[in-house]
Amino acid sequence: MKKELKDNIILIEDRDEDIQLIKRIITQTYPNLNLIVINDSEVALEHIKNKKILKHRPKLIILDINMPKINGLELLLEIKINNDYNKIPSIIFSSSTHQNDINNAYSNNINSYVQKPMNYKDLKKVLTATIDYWTNINLS
């Protein structure tokens, strides 16, 4: 029997609590999606530069901004300057609403900047709307 392939989403997030909540929402809501978590920004940068992320053929890359060592905007810059990643939608999913963060993200060609809600109900609503759009509605 042939195993059905799942689409991959890459989550670059350092906060364990957020990872667990996002993982729960995705596994419960999207059985056809496989969440690959990178919880260290230096490891994420290495994967981006060495094109290891490409082996997973992600449909979407979700980045947090506020991470130690290397922030999400620096990772975004590495993603967007690499031609191999140009067609993979990348979104910032962050609690930051600082206008400088938003402007910098769009200056570096982020596909979308989404504020991460603080409660589970709103987190689920916003995350599922975001994933639905980028994996089912948007043609890329």
UniProtKB/TrEMBL annotation:
Gene3D superfamilies: 3.40.50.2300
Annotated source species: Mesoflavibacter profundi
InterPro entries in alphabetical order: CheY-like_superfamily, Sig_transdc_resp-reg_receiver, TCS_response_regulator
4-aspartylphosphate PTM sites in chain numbering: 64
Database matches in PROSITE patterns: RESPONSE_REGULATORY
Domain Response regulatory as annotated: residue spans: 8-131
The entry's keywords: Phosphoprotein
Name the record gives this protein: Response regulator
Top-level lineage group: Bacteria
